[in-house]
């Protein structure tokens, strides 16, 4: 899961970025609100974490621009702020935020709220994805095939989650790279193919189908 953190406090921003990355998320971090619209227009984010108290731009106006601009952002937006007044919460939710989190916050709770907001955006009711004999627990970061635990790397888990959330769709290599890698991360040209190869080896050679010249999709039962 790739998210965008908008936080102008250097210490809090770095702590939040590191903490969420340790929980398996890919986190891009911006300190200036003026650059957010460009980032959202050029990258695919599952979720935005938005501080209202930005020094160079009003966070509420930025939220309004994200939801009402020429290309409205469709993903989840969580306000993370020190403002704890009820009118601020009401205004943020009415402007399109999916949740309102008061600083200081517990990192595990923040991660849970991110998962919940992203789950709702995908129309899911719970954190467990099921595909045939394959199950993926987003919260526990646990995968089982035919009842047996499958040990995956962080990137392998993210690839499988991305594909399972889009079952029935063909996902391109570029889309997977966007979901897996943040700014500054070096991407080998065959990185996605390697992750797919390892998933087939660890789960089943038939679990993911290659669609020639297009990308990948979860196989239906019995497909090879």
Automatic annotation (TrEMBL):
The keyword Protein biosynthesis appears for this protein: no
Residue numbers bearing the 4-aspartylphosphate modification: 51
DNA-binding region: 126-220
Chain coiled-coil ranges: none
Domain Response regulatory: 2-118
Coarse class of the protein's main subcellular location: cytoplasm
Places the protein is found: Cytoplasm
UniProt KW keywords: Cytoplasm, DNA-binding, Phosphoprotein, Transcription, Transcription regulation, Two-component regulatory system
A single GO cellular-component term on record: protein-DNA complex
Stored InterPro entries: CheY-like_superfamily, OmpR/PhoB-type_DNA-bd, Sig_transdc_resp-reg_receiver, WalR-like, WH-like_DNA-bd_sf
UniProt protein name: Response regulator transcription factor
